[in-house]
């Protein structure tokens, strides 16, 4: 069942349903004026609004979110806030400055999030224990060699793990090899974004279920909503892959729909068979491989599908079909838990560029955009959003320079060529995935 406006659908994705009820901010009615409008209340928009508020304590910042906070990708991801990116496809010593740039951005975002979670006591299962990068089949095993070369050359703290060590930690003998990267945080995504939204500074006014439907330029910018307008000096678009709905970046930014499932809460006996740690996260060394985590509340969560679906969530019917793929991967990894049912299946849409770059900077007169993090936007979105607030305020920081150095996005063809290209790139993503899916 999809609900919400036709253009901005929502659904019960589980991550939010597991949280206590929350009172939403009002939707926008009537004519409003402000110095700043931030469109989109995910990681990017929330970070941007918070930073703008600190930089301009005497100005009003309106934050306009089309859905309820937590319904976008930021509230329905797998909850890995990475410090260290995995650059698929081989280690290249000549790329080390680029690897360092991206990891500086990741770490800046992770540091900001850690500080905000602590300062505002956001209850989001924050757990900073790093991640396991694993390989079960040939291609991922080959990639592990590259990944270790990269970790060693970059002097990134890690621990190589063989099958027995992985089994001791994760309670599954499925993975042949792996490595534990010490940095990185696991979190409950919907709890994090709700917590961030509910602790915004007083000069940020959040409106939920308030999609911006159009934008006009002039002396001041005018945003048109269903039941009101906003006149402002500067607009920050933090709309991720939905920038196209405002007629922007259509040929640069597209989307991929991911899906996964999570189990009911496991019993103490079931948890006892799942290794030494009560929380862990697994990222596959194959780009099409499964992301698996044991969450703080004792649920196992597995995501292993990615498809081009026109930037849409999957219907409940399609989700049920995909769940057979989630299920097969789950039972292969955890045969002793084959009788444990899934309680939720969920899908979410990630913003992607053809060449894997991110977007940061001006998009027109007094209009700025950051987004499109290709499935890795929790810490990065926080850093980009913060840096964009500073950049749009005329600031100059090392983080801004790092964000501005993102490569330009490659051109994306229109439909029907897009459908063919997308189908091809999804097929390529899963090529050789084998047992890692
Ligand atoms: C299933 C899944 C798993 C993922 N797992 C991870 C992970 O483990 N780690 C990680 O780092 N990343 C992960 N990602 C990616 C990550 O979730 C995103 O990169 C990140 O959340 C993007 O943040 P954002 O704020 O830029 O965009 P979003 O979270 O998409 O927020 C954009 C917001 O803008 C709103 N909006 C759009 N248009 C309008 C408009 N016209 N008017 C008003 N509001 C508008 C939307 O409703 C939305 O809430 C995953 C993504 C998915 C889908």
The CATH homologous superfamily of the largest domain is termed FAD/NAD(P)-binding domain
The name CATH uses for the topology of the largest domain is FAD/NAD(P)-binding domain
What's the Cα radius of gyration? 21 Å
Euclidean distance between termini CA atoms? 27 Å
Q: What is the overall pLDDT average? A: 95
What's the helix count? 10
Largest sheet: 8 strands, mixed
**What's the SSE pattern?**
EEEHEEHEHEHEEHEEEEEHEEEHEEEHHH
Low-confidence residue ranges: none
Strand percentage lies at: 25-35%
CATH class assignment of the largest domain: Alpha Beta
Principal-axis shape equals globular
Protein topology:
Elements: E1 3-4, E2 9-10, E3 30-39, H1 43-55, E4 61-64, E5 80-81, H2 96-119, E6 131-135, H3 138-153, E7 158-162, H4 163-170, E8 177-181, E9 185-186, H5 189-198, E10 204-207, E11 212-216, E12 221-225, E13 228-237, E14 254-263, H6 268-272, E15 280-284, E16 291-294, E17 300-307, H7 316-333, E18 342-352, E19 359-364, E20 367-371, H8 378-392, H9 398-404, H10 417-430
Parallel strand pairs: 3-4, 3-13, 4-10, 6-15, 13-20
Antiparallel strand pairs: 1-2, 5-9, 6-8, 7-8, 11-12, 12-13, 14-17, 14-18, 15-16, 16-17, 19-20
Helix pairs in contact: 1-8, 2-8
């Amino acid at each position: 069942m999809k609900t919400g406006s036709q253009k901005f659908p929502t659904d019960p994705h589980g991550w939010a349903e597991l949280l206590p009820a929350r009172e939403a901010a009002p939707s926008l009615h009537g004519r409003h004026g402000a110095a700043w409008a931030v469109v989109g209340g995910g990681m990017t928009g929330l970070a941007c609004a918070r930073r703008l508020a600190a930089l301009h304590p005497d100005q009003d910042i309106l934050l306009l979110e089309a859905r309820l906070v937590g319904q976008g990708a930021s509230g329905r991801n797998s909850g890995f806030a990475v410090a260290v990116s995995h650059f698929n496809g081989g280690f290249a010593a000549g790329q080390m400055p680029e690897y360092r740039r991206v990891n500086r951005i990741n770490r800046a975002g992770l540091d900001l999030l850690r500080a905000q979670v602590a300062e505002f006591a956001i209850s989001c299962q924050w757990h900073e224990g790093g991640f396991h990068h694993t390989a079960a089949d040939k291609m991922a095993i080959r990639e592990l060699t590259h990944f270790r070369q990269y970790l060693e050359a970059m002097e990134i703290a890690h621990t190589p793990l063989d099958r027995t060590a992985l089994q001791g930690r994760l309670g599954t003998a499925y993975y042949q090899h792996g490595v534990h990267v010490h940095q990185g945080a696991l979190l409950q995504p919907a709890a994090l974004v709700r917590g961030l939204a509910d602790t915004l500074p007083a000069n940020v006014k959040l409106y939920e279920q308030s999609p911006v439907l159009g934008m006009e330029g002039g002396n001041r910018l005018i945003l048109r909503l269903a039941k009101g307008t906003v006149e402002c000096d500067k607009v920050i678009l933090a709309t991720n892959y939905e920038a196209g709905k405002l007629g922007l970046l259509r040929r640069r930014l597209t989307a991929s729909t991911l899906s996964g499932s999570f189990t009911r809460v496991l019993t103490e006996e079931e948890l006892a068979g799942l290794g030494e740690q009560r929380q862990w996260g697994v990222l596959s060394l194959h780009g099409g491989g499964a992301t698996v985590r044991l969450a703080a509340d004792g649920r196992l969560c597995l995501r292993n599908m990615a498809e081009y679906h026109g930037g849409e969530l999957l219907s409940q019917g399609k989700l049920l079909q995909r769940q057979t793929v989630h299920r097969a991967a789950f039972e292969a990894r955890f045969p002793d838990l084959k009788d444990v049912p899934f309680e939720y299946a969920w899908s979410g849409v990630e913003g992607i560029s053809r060449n894997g770059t991110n977007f940061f900077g001006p998009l027109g007169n007094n209009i700025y955009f950051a987004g499109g993090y290709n499935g890795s936007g929790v810490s990065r979105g926080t850093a980009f959003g913060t840096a964009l607030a500073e950049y749009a305020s005329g600031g100059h920081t090392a983080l801004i320079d790092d964000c501005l150095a993102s490569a330009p996005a490659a051109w994306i063809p229109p439909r029907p060529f897009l459908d063919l290209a997308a189908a091809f790139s999804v097929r390529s993503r899963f090529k050789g995935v084998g047992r890692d899916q």
